Amino acid sequence: MSAESGVPTYRGRGGIWNEYNYEDYACELAFQHDPDSVLDFHELRRSHVLTCVPHAGHLHLAALQRVHPSLNIITQNIDGMHQRVGTSVAAELHGSLWRQRCAQHGRLTDTAGGRYRVRVCPRCGQTLRPDITWFGDGIDQAVFATAQALIDECDLFIAIGTAAIVWPAAGLIPFQRKPRPWLVEINPEETEVSDGFDDEIRQPASKLSQLLKM
After folding, report:
1. Average pLDDT over residues 65-77
2. How many domains does the chain have?
3. What is the pLDDT of residue 208?
4. Which residues are catalytic?
5. What is the Cα–Cα distance from 79 to 43, expressed in whole angstroms?
6. Could you tell me if 190 and 38 are in contact, meaning their C-beta atoms sit under 8 angstroms apart?
7. What are phi and psi of 68, to 5 degrees?
C-alpha cells in the first residue's frame, strides 16, 4: 500500500532485506546483543518514512471511511501512513514504527520524529524495543483476534498490494469462509493466491479512487 509513497517494501525488488540482514536488525536476539544498533536502524526507518507522503489511495480510503464507517482497515504495514491522513486502523498486524514497548510496563506511543524521544522505560530503565513483530516473534494474539472477528463478519474483502506470503497474516484472507464474502485483489502484479479471488484488478493502490466507487 505504501510502496508508491516511497516507503521501501521488505521483500521483492528494492526490498530492505536485500540490503540489510534481518538477523542483525529485526529479531529479538539482535536486540539483546546490540540494542543500540537495532534502535539506530529503526530510527533510520522512521526518518525515511517521514520524508514520504501518503498517496491518492490513502486519501481515498480515508474519504470512504468517513462516508462508510463500517469500512475497517487491517494492515500489515508498520509505517503509520493510513493514520497520517486520518484513517482509523482497526488492526496493525505487525505493529508500528511509532510505538515502543517495555516487557514489564507495556507500550508507549512515540510520534516525535525520526529519533526516539527516549530509549529506556521511564518506569524501570529497561531498554525499549520497537513495538514491531520481528522475525521469530510470536504474533499479538489480541490484534489478530480483532482482525479475525471483523473478517468473519464482512461481506466484501479487498486485499490491496499484499503478496500474501507472510503467515499467519496471509491466512486471514477468507477463501474458505462460508458464507464467503466477495473477494477482490488489487495489485499490479499477480500473486500466488490470485486465482482464489473473485475479482483481480491489476492496478496500483494509488488508483483506488478510480477503482472503488463506493
Report:
1. 96
2. 1
3. 83
4. 94
5. 12
6. no
7. -125, 85
Its domain, for residue 165, covers 3-211
**Can the peptide bond before residue 35 be classed as cis, meaning omega within 30 degrees of 0?**
no
Nearest alpha-carbon partner for 145 in 99, 93, 108, 85: 93
Q: What is the pLDDT of residues 193-211, one digit of tens each?
A: 999 999 999 999 998 877 7
Q: Taking Cα atoms as reference points, which of 6, 132, 135, 18 lies closest to residue 75? A: 132
What CATH number did the domain enclosing 182 receive? 3.40.50.1220
Three-state secondary structure readout of 13-81: CCCHHHCCCHHHHCEHHHHHHCHHHHHHHHHHHHHHHHCCCCCHHHHHHHHHHHHCCCCCEEECCCCCH
Where residue 213 falls among pLDDT bands split at 50, 70, 90?
low
Instruction: Please name the amino acid found at residue 58.
Output: H
- Stated pTM of the model: 0.90
More confidently predicted of 146 and 9:
146
| Cβ contact 211:185 at 8 Å | no
Cell 496493525 -> residue:
92
- C-alpha 84/C-alpha 75 separation (Å) is 14
pLDDT in tens, 96-119: 999 999 999 999 999 889 999 999
According to DSSP, residue 159 is labeled E
Tell me how crowded residue 45 is: count the other CB atoms within 10 A of its CB.
Answer: 20
